[in-house]
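User: I'll paste a sequence; please echo it back and then give the predicted structure.

Assistant: Echoing your sequence first, then the prediction.
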Amino acid sequence: MLKSVLFFFLKCSLHKGEGFYTEHVNITEDHSPGFDGDSPDTECVVFNSHGEPATDLEVSKEQSMAEENLRQALKCRLESCFSRENLSKDLYLISQMDSDQFVSIWTIACMEDIKALTSDMDLILDVLKASPMVQVDEAGKKVRPNHSRCVIILREIPETTPVQEVEALFQSENCPKVLRAEFAHNSNWYITFQSDLDAQQVCLNL
């Protein structure tokens, strides 16, 4: 009769040099041909970084750290999607926006960078709602960038254009004062005014 003991060691997620591994012990009583014994017994023990059996509190703490790291990574990626720099060049995302700049959260969740982190729609929605960089609609179905409305975007103006020439476009008598004109990306310029009303007035006069 043959007996064998198999040990498998699985490294778990590490955090600041600490982590856990599990040891699975499978003991099979007989490997003889035609043996019709019971299924092998299996035990699983979780160890901490010191090689000692981990307590429930240690395991729970490690899981919480992993979840928080995921939320932080997801937050950074989502906010990057809606940053001014990305929106100035992400033609696909812009094409998915409605007239109020809202885009379906499902569309965001289907982006490869987001899918690489998670497919949990509830988590994605929760992270979006907690971010000051975006605004989620009341139904929780759509999201849009939460940029100040006192900024308007001028497109197809080369980077080599002097700032004075860009500002000169807004120097008529009825035009509010420009606070700042700055080049963004892909021939786009951001023009900042003092208030939302000033920016709206400029848009009506352009």
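The chain has a mean pLDDT of 75. The CA atoms of residues 6 and 26 lie 6 Å apart.
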